[in-house]
Amino acid sequence: xxxxxxxxxxxxxxxxxxAYVRLVDQKNVHWANRSHFFAISAQIMRRILIDHARRYAxxxxxxxxxxxSLEEAAAISNARGSDLLRxxxxxxxxxxxxxxxxxxxxxxxxxxxxxxxIAGVLNVSENTVTRDWNMARAWLYQQLSESAAN
Amino acid sequence: MSPxxxxxxxxxFKSAIxxxxxxxxxxIANQCRGxxxxxxxxxxxxxxxxxASAEDFIGGQAADxxxxxxxxxxxxxxxxxxxxxxxxxxxxxxxxxxRLGAGGMGEVYLAKDSRxxxxxxxxxxxxxxxxxxxxxxxxxxxxxxxxxxNQPNILTIYEFGEVDGLTYLxxxxxxxxxxxxxxxxxxxxxxxxxxxxIQILTALEAAHEAHIVHRDIKPENVxxxxxxxxxxxxxxxxxxxxxxxSRAFTENQSEAVTEFRTTPGVLMGTINYMSPExxxxxxxxxxxxxxxxxxxxxxxxxxxxxxxxPTTSHTLVQILEKEPxxxxxxxxxxAELQRIIRKxxxxxxDERYQSARDMAVDLRTLRKQLDQAEVLATxxxxxxxxTDQWREKKRVLLVALVAMLVVTVGFLTFSVWRASRARSSGxxxxxxxxxxxxxxxxxxxxTYSITVQKFRDGVYKDPYNVRGEINxxxxxxxxxxxxxxxPGHLYIFSEGPRGGSTVPELLVxxxxxxxxxxxxxxxxxxxxQVPEESWFKFDEQEGVEWLWxxxxxxxxxxxxxxxxxxxxxxxxxxxxxxxxRIVYEFLTAQSNPKPAVDRGEELTTLTAPxxxxxxxxxxxxx
Lengths: 150, 622
Hints:
The structure holds 2 protein chains of 2 kinds. Chain A is mainly alpha-helical. Helix content of chain A is 77%, strand content 0%. Chain A is built from 6 helices and no strands. The two termini of chain A are 29 Å apart. The model of chain B is unreliable at 67-81, 243-269, 380-388 and 410-439 (pLDDT under 50). Chain B is of the alpha+beta class. In chain B, strands 12, 15, 17, 21, 22, 24 and 25 form a 7-stranded antiparallel sheet that branches. A 6-stranded antiparallel sheet of chain B has the order 1-2-3-4-6-5. Chain B has 19 helices and 26 strands. In chain B, a hairpin with a 2-residue loop joins strand 1 (90-91) and strand 2. The chains are: A mainly alpha, B alpha+beta.
């Protein structure tokens, strides 16, 4: 995981701002502690990204008023967007079988936490997190390649 | 897939992953005997694992990928090519003069209002925003709130309207740039920093008096006019109308409060200016804006934001828990300014400035002092004629001083000479100098401090130094820092909880091949951290452990002989039982009498007479 990736910082924070204001304005959110906070923040991050991807996919299908004039750029992001949507679906399926592994992915991929921090949030050892991550990632990869082939 | 099946697969996967090639295949075959479909699933998953690692599948962060998505969606490039309005075009009573830029919300044009003959900035909303009720609500809010505030440091809003199917917002035109761009990672002088902050506070004072909290004060929302550096606060789009005014302002307050930004182009903001109470989703008031001004002051002075982590979550945790890096290192920041910033950035709103006005008063006073300081500085170096005169005077003075010194030394020399003559002739002189001994005899001194990191709620808290020997809890981790006031040989051992045997197991912690190149000899004033890279972690097993410290003027052969055990493979354990016993006997025999222990705030100093210091630090945990 490259947490130091520089290029998109500005855009990333932009996205975050929205995520955060949304989080803040959800009246009933009063997290008990930092772990809880990290967990919620990863969840919200996921929701926001998925919303965006969905909106984008919708606009691309000709829905909405948005005109997509730069075909090329749109195609690239549309591919990314649909990847995200499929990943989200696969994660939901995983959560039904194995909630913890699904959460490891959520915390790491959407929340940006490292394994040590995830171990703290889930109250398991770092080794367990690494194992969970390997298994979950392999399974997700498999699901996504299968659905892409169909 | 059933959860049972999943469990079965994951159990095999977990073990298989640590095996290679044939061993792995054999293991899988063995585990899946008689169940071909299970074997096929496990193998497919193993293959997927290898592919996924090779491709670094979901190895980055979703936000980064999503950002690309957003960036394209914002699509500045597209609008760059197809501006919706052209120069010379008439929109209602506005004549379009130039295009100033574009953001996610729409485009901004420079226009002339033909009715009032004034230049305005015309924000034209993109059609999908005009069609979006929530965003329109936000826009209306901004227009309403800001236009109700008539203050020179707040961007004036002229009109919010619709013409020919275009929705627009006409505002005062500022020929300038945002404070973000003005700062551009540079530092400002205290005087300029203070000037800018005072103007922002003046704007906020007006807003707060109208019971409006901005909630989103940051350099992106502050404009500076080129001509005169006049500061304008903009973007009241997230502003919250506090209770007293809410009815007058918003038909539906809950809508206004839950409103959030959804458009990437305008979203170039950050959460770094958010106050702790905002971060905690607690109700906010005027004092949240005070916090944000404090953060901006800090950034203007230092060029860096006080709270900034690798991800939002990390930044927010910093805002909630951490003190910003001390400003004291900045020589240019006057102590008073540091105090003002600290007060503005107090975690608890009650400890902050209670109003923008109070903070502005302090800053104005400071500004006057800065002016006076500058005036004094100018007097010192500014007037060349007077400076030359002063230099001349100094030279004369210096010559006089040197002359006096020569005379004095001559006189003293003469006195000493006379005194020595007197002594040699048997007469006792009272003026003869007597040397004062600085060292009472050989002694060993060693200082140490213990840094502890508590494990709470599943995460490690900020490390801090503890005084004395406290009780630790399972999960806590510690490191010990040593300083050698004098050169000598340092040996450190750890003694685990005593089992059945009379001689406990000892671990060699220092010297080790990775610390001090395996040498026990340290120079004066050397810093040593043990363990050198990691932490000691207390496990669940309760008991008392000891950390044995030996600091000797000469190398200790008994201890030198066990250095070889300080390796990772060995886990630092002295596996040779005879040597282990010899070391233990040495330690217990030499630890009496105990060295003097002086516990300071953070540092503990041990002092022992002679050439050898042996001490055991007690580490108790429950």
